[in-house]
Amino acid sequence: MDKDFGKRTLSSHRDHRMTREGKQCFGEIVKLFKPEWITNGIDSETIDFLQKAGDYMAPMKKEDKEALTNSQIRNVYGELKRIQMKGFEKSQSEFLLLRPKVAYAAKRKSDKETETGMELFKNIFDRAYDAVVGVTDNDQKVIAFKNFCSIMEGLIAYHKYYGGK
Q1: Roughly what angle, to the nearest 10 degrees, separates helices 23-32 and 117-133?
Q2: Is residue 155 a contact partner of residue 53, using CB atoms and an 8 Å limit?
Q3: Residue 138 is inside which H or E element, if any?
Q4: pLDDT tens track for 41-60
Q5: Pick from 16, 49, 26: which is nearest to 128 by CA?
Q6: Spatial separation of the C-alpha atoms in residues 89 and 93, rounded to whole Å
Q7: For residue 120, what are the contacts with CB-CB under 8 A and spacing of at least 6?
Q8: pTM of the full structure
Q9: Less packed terminus of the chain by CB within 10 Å, N or C?
């Protein structure tokens, strides 16, 4: 077994590394999310948030059962891309049905003792989803959905960067 797998070498990027043992760390990441990233657009603060969240969701060691897998996050992202390709205006019902799918995936992965990477993903997804659903103007809702997709793509990228499997 590779003992160095869980060690991070990019210290400048790793200052924010938090273990999943403390619920406070999970909560701190969740609190950083801002719904206005969905409605107003992505900024540098969004990227910092995505980095921290992607890092938290990635495995800390090879056998990390709490980490989010690429297949779990890609299933959701794949559905988002299908909706985007059909056109959000025509596929809003498919978008609305994503929330229960993510909830189901999170429950399958959950553990009462810990907060998993999938639960963090679900929490971020729910907050971003609510921001999209809360937009009343149809043109603005399409823009919000595009920002939502970009945030999900950023999560995938940082999850993979930090060792997501």
Answers
A1: 30
A2: yes
A3: helix 138-161
A4: 999 999 999 999 988 888 77
A5: 49
A6: 9
A7: 26, 29, 30, 53, 56, 57, 68
A8: 0.79
A9: N
